């Protein structure tokens, strides 16, 4: 005589097996029929998959987006259901290329904020303490960040900033990079002052803006663009945090693959009648182009200027020789000297500066340009002019 208990167990197991392979009926959703089925029911090597799947094995793949595809873009990529207000517009994407439709959701800000596209990379930045301010740096940035973190970045130029800048002054930092000199200037001119940081490399802009915020420097304005002769576009080629801008070429293939950045003249970036006392410029040889376009600003405010001086780069990017760049300032009534760590460096002739550049054995030196006849009294000018 069979064991009734065993028989009941067998019947129960069979019933469970039937439940496992029986497809769950589709349910009605705003997007249409949406299928639900436990993964446990999808048994490889059986016919169960054919019964459970919302498609048939011999169905051809449809490269056009369906209403259901769009609904699942919301569920899977955005993590929510579409709202009644937005659904009519989104469902209207049905019939378009599936790749393009899915890409539009993948590229959305809402999807990016969910962090689905790979594991969250640990931020490779550190907050470095400097004298009077803090700045975000990256050890992977061999051009600038590594040296800033070590406390050995451009000490002679930094000393000039500390000697010249006073509370309330207006400063322009052209080629701000990750913002070391912008933050230094902001710490020296204080909330009554003004700092315009101009930088086209968006990776640097993010670092710069993060540093501005952590310091609470509300008097710093970050302009995410290149400085040039007229409003327009430039190409950017970057190595670590350093970068070089140039004109956009005419070749279509080059244009489509280039990193394009906006460009504006310095004058267009300044608040009306904002006095400018100091300019630092390091734009990889485009210094003459940028400052020629800012000639009116220089003539009006007579700022002290610290400039990188690289004759080779000037010829390549501005189309002028080192001598012509120096003569540009002489025509504006400026006296030049080499930045060598001394606060009382004597004014030098064009020939003397060119000779110092050649003696340096480096691809650039820094020069200080001071108006011979300043229109306003500024602390530090008497010493810089040798008086």
From TrEMBL:
All residue ranges annotated as the Methyltransferase FkbM domain in the record: 173-335
BP-aspect Gene Ontology terms: methylation
InterPro entries: FkbM_mtfrase, SAM-dependent_MTase, SAM-dependent_MTases_sf
Top-rank lineage group of the source organism: Bacteria
Record key words, sorted: Methyltransferase, Transferase
A GO term for molecular function: methyltransferase activity
Name of this protein: FkbM family methyltransferase
Lineage: Bacteria, Pseudomonadati, Pseudomonadota, Alphaproteobacteria, Acetobacterales
